[in-house]
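Holo prediction — zinc ion.
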Amino acid sequence: MPNLYLGIDLGGTNIKAGVVTADGKLIARASMPTGSGPQQVVEHMVQAAKHAVAAGAILLEDIESMGIASPGPLSSGEGIVLRSANLPGWNRVPLRDLLADALGRPAYLENDAKAAAYGEFVAGAGAHEQIRNFVLFTLGTGVGGGIIYHGRLLRGMSDSAAEIGHMIVEPEGEACGCGQRGCLELYASASRTGKYAQHLLNAVPQRPSSMRALLESGTPIDSRAVVEHADAGDELAREVWDRACRFLAIACVNTARWLDPQMLALAGGMAAAGESLLKPVLKHFSLLNWKMSETPMQIVLAKLGNDAGMIGAACLARDAHEQR
Ligand SMILES: [Zn+2]
């Protein structure tokens, strides 16, 4: 039997577990609702792992090691989730050891956006032999990301490398929950893009927009509604979407300047818009980017969708296992 690894992705609503081969192929999967409180969540993670193993018609003993992708902040080295915005009541939970004990396999813990970046690098958009320097932006409720530098995940001194969402793009901008002002995720996350559309509709009641019907029926406006209405030609939706894409392009130019990677991939809820996201980001990128030399960095859409974190966590577990 080939070497097999388990990836477990702890999300705010669902836990996903998958059996992954050494080259990053997902061969079996299962999911469970997240539940609440560390004890229940850990129980559900154990269940999801057992179901995935059963779905692959293998035994837990066949799993070399397992990787856990969790929202942070966390300490990968200590295997501890420090706290979590999506998981109330979490405070210094030793998630790695709890799962290793419950399942009897060695475990590794990684931030979910970093794990997703590694998954896309190994088995998704970045899976080409010549690509060794790769960056992922995840555009969801917030903005996160990960950096692969010469084939290795960059964690930083305090596990907080690639906090792309808290890159300052507007120094006099809105106050962010992190204590800074003008962070990228206030301008270019899926949730904020919807909120900004709502703000404009409320601020200028006489301005026509096809999104007004949503507002009047009490339907929350999300980034998907914004891009749908923008694609259908609504001016206000276009303005909102284009503004988000411009802020993303600023972050892309900055990434090209400080890291000069071969590829930058866009993932998460906003990336589901596909070409409707990529085209305006590329347009603003070429307007904002320097002109003194070529920029080799390709900007692309991610490929693994919601499986990236699970696959990446399993591949990180593989690396840690091989290094032992
Ligand atoms: Zn911030």
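READOUT: The longest helix spans residues 235-259.
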